[in-house]
Amino acid sequence: MPPPRTRGTALRQRLAELRGPDVPAKALDARALAALAANPGCKRRAILDGAGVNKAVLADALGSPSAFGQSQFAFMRGNAFEARVKADGGAELLRLVHEKLDPGAEPPTRARVPELAAIGPEGRAARTALALREASEAAAWTLLDHPMLALDVAGSPAFLEPDAVVVHPDGSWTVVEIKSFPMLDGSADPAKVGAAARQSAVYVLALEEVAAKLDPAPRVRHRILLVCPKDFSNLPTASAVDVRKQRAVTGRQLARLTRIEDIADTLPEGTCFAPDRPAAELTAAVESVPAAYAPECLAACELAFHCRDHSRASGAVTTLGRSLRADLGDLTTVDEVLSAAHGESGDPDDPAVAALRRAAELRAEALENAAALRDAAALRGQTPGSAAELPMEALGSATGGGVR
Hints:
The chain has 404 residues and is of the alpha+beta class. It has 16 helices and seven strands.
């Protein structure tokens, strides 16, 4: 008799059907998780990432190719720099960890580098958890090169692969993030450092899940080591980055995500995101899942161009930014905003409606004054131009006796 179909097995089967029976799953990495956590209200991204859909291929099939992603040159440069940092058993990397994060410990003259190879991501994650436990018990410097960590995201496991994790002699764990952007005079681009911190916060969350299963639970350090090229050379330098804020925000946002099986249950029967489907059918499948587009998606999601086009077509105010959307309250479309501004709809006691009507009054007054200035210029036989070209008396008469 075949084994009974459990809830987890049923979900994996359902996600495979959504992805397409012959389409391989795309692994969900920490960068994608950080972007997903930054927009937890987007059910479209949640179900596509949970099902392992390659959103870049999907965007091409929809006719909205994405410009998001890392160039091949940057990818190769990053790999070469990472190999240099980890050369000689990670001696330079461990020296930087000791110098920046744990100078009071004994110098890492010799470190353990356990083998983490195993079959499949589940096997690698289990092997990593075992290596972390053994390293904590050994009370010695240990370097885990590209370990595999598992993190539960909306009821579905995501497998993550940080650049490195270092175990200190006191048994604590540190995430190491290696980037190819430079540190100039000891500082790097704040935007890129922030992105690296958000990515590392995801690894910290995953490590905390591993640590929680051990007794006693090892300490996961909230100061990660960011390693970058020094100035314009290929020599590594590093900085300790506190990711407690990013870890708290990311954890809270991931907890807010609607469970993937709940989203899947709302989709029409036969929904499939396989890129070989007809364009009309594929568009209908994508549009059957609600999205939460914002301009920030352009730097974080491969489907941003497609979602932007449809958001503009529907007149959604989120197209103009999340901050504006928050200021407008219950007004969700441009048509609703214009109607409220013109006094055709909306509650006058609503602060957003009152502000819109006041703005409309100021705009009408400004247009009226501009028309008066043009008329005054025409009467004087001048070519209509800027207000600065008119004498002060003309400005006074055009604005009702005074300059405002």
